[in-house]
Amino acid sequence: MLLTLKIKNYLTIGGAIPLIAWLACTSLANRALAQLTPDTSLGNESSVVTPNVDVKGALADLIEGGAIRDINLFHSFLEFNVLDGGRVYFANPVGIESIFTRVTGNNVSNILGTLGVDGAASLFLLNPNGIVFGNNAQLDIEGSFFSTTANSLVFGDGSEFSAANPNQPPLLKVSTPLGLQYGANSTGAIANSGNLAVPGDLTIAGVNLDLQGQLLAGEDLRLQAQKAVEISDSVTQQFIAAAGGELVIQGNESVDILALNHPDSGLFAGGNLLLRSPNSIAGDAHYWSGGSFRVEKLDGSLGDLESPNDPVIRSFGDVSFNIYVGASLHILAGGSVDIGTAVITGTETGNAGDNFLVEEITLSDGTLVSINGGEKPTLDVRAGVSPEAIGNPGITGFDGLPTEFFADAGFNFLEPPPETNTAATSADITISGIGVSDPD
């Protein structure tokens, strides 16, 4: 099955995912050879791993060699892992803008330490068996990062960089990557519990995705699964997905988001925020969009949203979805709001817990009204709201990242939005039907 994808301005991707939790056991002996084992599929252009090289002021395993084609560099490995506390870097020859790495063996890649590029090139990691980013996983990449469990990358000239069939015709010439090719029985999943951050695009595309860590992209963030996307947090560990540009979450079978256990959890986009799946999306989270917020099906029509708790949607632009079913719902939109039907299922006494919106709002006549989703089921929908009322995300969960991380992308989550003093605009609220239903 061929999927299309978007990375930066020239790649478009599709994917899907439900997940498995596994970490492979690794030995500290023979570190470079045991964790990074090049194959022979590139002939005399095979990858070369040199351990204990000073890279950016600390020791690391440095990957050199590979096959250069124009501005692209290709590597091929039987095994590709990064030990907990370890550092693995790709050398970045002059003129190389993209580094492509495939895993042709039969094992999952465990990224438990730092994976980086000693330069400004973007990095692509391809392993059909699966990829695990552990608790201490982090990226040191100046460009974009793309990880996938597809069988191959497909290029514009029809050639493929395949992990499933590495002995196909050699890379005589390579153009821009156009898509991903998954096998008929692909099962590779991607799990993350680490802190993955890049200043460019961040894309995670697999058969199933199990995302419990933190994901930060200075530009676009895309989480795409051939089957299911599962996102969750805990009382002690927040989940954050943040993009300076567009945030897209797509599950070709399902999307399940449960991220209201930690007060700092949330999904944030400097541009549009899009949830996409053919079935109703479980969207238990707080959302913030500098553009529009939209739930849609794979064909582009409006999709459905459900939540057992109290999702809060803040958007500088429009908010659109078809049917909502949940305990409460809060929407603050700078543009219009378009909902097919809203069914509120919360109990009269409200819902236990601390994950509900509590604030005072000012009506057009100046009256102050208290909103508390924890005391009573609430349908609170506001359109044409000023940016000041919508507020800013104030993300605090990325340890060690500079506050100006998004500056180059023209957006900074940690500063008030530039339209802070803009007056509210006129906007429509369209809800075709409102219902109240006793919870099951």
UniProtKB/TrEMBL annotation:
It comes from the Bacteria. Residues 43-156 form the Filamentous haemagglutinin FhaB/tRNA nuclease CdiA-like TPS domain. Gene3D superfamilies: Single-stranded right-handed beta-helix, Pectin lyase-like. InterPro entries: FhaB/CdiA-like_TPS (IPR008638), Pectin_lyas_fold (IPR012334), Pectin_lyase_fold/virulence (IPR011050). Pfam families: TPS. This is Filamentous hemagglutinin N-terminal domain-containing protein. It comes from Symploca sp. SIO1C4.
